[in-house]
Amino acid sequence: MAKNIKITINEVAVEIESGTSILDAARQTGVIIPTLCYHKDLCVAGNCRVCVVEIVGQKRLSAACATPCEDGMDILTNSFKVRNSRKHIIELLLSEHNADCTRCYKNGNCELQKLASDYKIMTQDFIRLSRSKNYTIDHYSPSIIKDDSKCIRCQRCVRTCEEIQGVNALTVAYKGDRMKISTFFEKPMNDVICTNCGQCINHCPTGALVEKNYIEEVWDAIADKSAHVIVQTAPAVRIGLGEELGFKAGTRVTGKMVAALKRLGFDAVMDTDFSADLTIMEEGTELMMRLKRALVDRDPEVKLPMATSCSPGWIKYIEHMYPNQLGYLSTCKSPQQMFGALAKTYYAKAKKLDPDKIVSVSIMPCTAKKFESNRPEMHDSGFRDVDYVLTTRELAIMIKQAGIDFMRLEDMPFDSLMGESTGAGVIFGATGGVMEAALRTVYELVTGRSVPFENLNITPVRGMDGVKEASIKIESPIEEWEFLDGVELKCAVAHGLLNAKKVMDSIISGESHYHFVEFMACPGGCLGGGGQPIPTNPEIRRKRAEAIYAEDEGMPLRKSHQNPEILKIYNDFLLKPMGERSHQLLHTKYSPRERF
Amino acid sequence: MPSPAYLLKRVDFIFKDEKDWKEILKNSINRPAHELINELISSELKGRGGAGFPTGLKWKLTAEVDDSIKYVICNADEGEPGTFKDREILSKVPLKVLTSMAVCGHVIGSKEGYIYLRGEYFFLQPELNKSIREFKDYCNEINFDFTIRIFMGSGAYICGEETALFESMEGKRGEPRNKPPFPSTYGYMGKPTVINNVETLAHCYTIFEYGSKRFYDLGVQYSRGSKLFSVSGDTPKPGIYELELGMSLVDFVDEFGDGDTKAVQVGGASGFLVPRKGFRETTIGFQGKLTGISLPTGGSMMLFNSSRSMYNVLDNYLEFFREESCGQCTPCRVGCQQLLNGIKAVKRGEKNALYLNKLMRLTETMQYTAKCGLGQSVANSFSAIVENFREEMIY
After folding, report:
1. Is the dihedral of CA A523, A527, A529, A532 positive or negative?
2. Nearest-CA distance A237 → chain B (Å)
3. Domain A123-208, architecture per CATH
4. ipTM surpasses 0.90
């Protein structure tokens, strides 16, 4: 237990835990100190210097984020010296920044813009440095646009890429006035190890890193009378979208979201949760087949643990980092791509539509999904399976553009055929969700009984620990799966690529023996995805997770194999999990990539 | 303390031969740590890199930290413009430096030392390695476990800043860290570390050889001992001189000037510029409570005569800082660019002369808010040059 110390902030005496930074101490006492390079997810950098405060008796100012309080400190956060210096620093940042705000994608959600507005920086006395620097915009990636002219060098993206993801695609290059955030040999983001996870976008305070948006393309498709535009929405969108539209973090807006999408003019609004349930059927079956091959047939070719393949950031990561270990991956496509492949086959057939006229749009909490839909493998329907991927943020922009008063919308249900889902599909949006959904189904298929957890809640795989482990002992299975009797099914869940690396390394070294591992590229799973509302921080992620599990609890059906539309599709179209049609449409392969 | 008419006193400690190093090493490591620390504390030796932190205290703080792994680092990243004394020490009396590092290892409980050698000093490496081998052989002979290695820098000025130096040694980008924590608790590899300038270590040797009194008797209050000065610029006798601290700048200029000295840059580009009118009231040493204007220096003394344009001098400094800033913190990275572009704009008449005042206020902000000494110290020469040579800035 840390001892308490006494300090004074703006002449108010307070008692705080020793070791607290000045920034946190101030926040605890209701004093807000502006920050730029500080982010709750990341280590303290102390390089923007916007948070400087005066410690009485010291000549120099101190960065509040990086300075721990000491007993008896007398801190001023708004003294003459502090105010002048802070204004100077904001002016300096603006002089180096391409402050063409009205033409910036982040206009209205930019931390630098907010500071400039709060401090009323009306004049620009300093020389505009941004003009003399020849910045280029990197827009080669289908997911991310990097514009150095808007970069303030806070290094939040660099720290994100290193500390959360362990990818290190973004690093600092050069020094002094030429210092910038760059990639290996200044290659485009598309040509380096970048996984397109978009965490850098989510952590960027300005418009230097933004998603490549396809808003206009989608508007055009909607306006095209001959096109049949269908949309799918990922599980994590419904618990994040509200934040962009005036609701508190953790508000579930599923029905309003569906209503808004219909108002926007989509011809059919369906649910990625449906294909999440489908993923469970395919992936669960694949797992059981792998277990059989490993335990009964003793096939040396079969690789265990089986790793999930829903997260395209994770897929690209393993392709770069572990190109020789791709055999661990489930061959299942992600729910988005399963949906896409079915939209232009199953759906087109059922609705008697020309698949060529279908425009398939998906709303994702993710920027890597944009890359995924662009992969050459994803054309199994004979067309591009998913035409446009929008992030949660882009959907919010469209809703605002359309003049929809989101708060006052009446809830509406998803359209049928691929709109029905279960609680298992919903929890895909949270870390551990795929695992939990899979266990609910696999256990029941093998034993004929529900998972032995109260109210189906497999709590060991929930929560925000970076790596979670769980095991379920299979007892008295049905005849077909007798070989699994007494087998302890060992599972692990990792979210954030740095954690994924830890688990992969322990698997490869032989230290861990799992049967099934869920990997998600983003911290918290999809609910903390790179396409989710900004800001995203530990507290917001926790609230979104609560919302997802509440959504699950409220569903009448909570096991994927009970989804009536899933039963229907297997009956009418796919025939059986891992069958011929499934192989053709729902499964894929992976290719090794180089590490730059 | 009145100090006019204080005459320059040459001293010859540093470059005095190092033949007794074995004996000094052996004697020192047989003395208890606290005794050696007290010896250093009573000598009042302060860091010779320029910042002037008391060396004895630095060793003491690190010795007090409980950790099985600690490091001793010799900062030989001599990058300050106009400084070239460490190069001489390392080529003429390297064993003095090595001895002091080893004694420091004994005092703080460290078995490993590194010399962070400036990238441009690669030519010193072969000879220095020879000395290191000779030194290691003797350590083995007397069963004293201490290993010294050279770590080559890559030429970035900022890596002379102690925490940037650690980052660089750890294989990362040379960027200063936030302080606290300080090196005494969290240094190289996050371990307690003593980092001393080359010259500081050479002085430690003198103190171990002759005792603290001989050292303390030199210099003035707050600024004890002697110091190497790298004299350059408009002087008939450039070179390295060991002089007593506390000398008056006017005496210095009398001795080294060419009779037409307009200004002296004390402590390199990041140091202080003293115009002619300030020579008399300025002494060279560490700021204390009693002395008047006392300027610390890492040893660089650059003299400028009336043929020099102070605009060009400042332009040159700022260009240096603009390039050598690590670029991480806003006041330093952008500030340096603004200062350089600003004085150019004033000179070209694109900005009004009053813009210089705005730039002066900017240097104040840089001094208050920059993350490390680099950005903080740009204000020193800028304000002195702009204040004293304003007309040269404008016309």
Report:
1. negative
2. 36
3. 2-Layer Sandwich (3.30)
4. yes
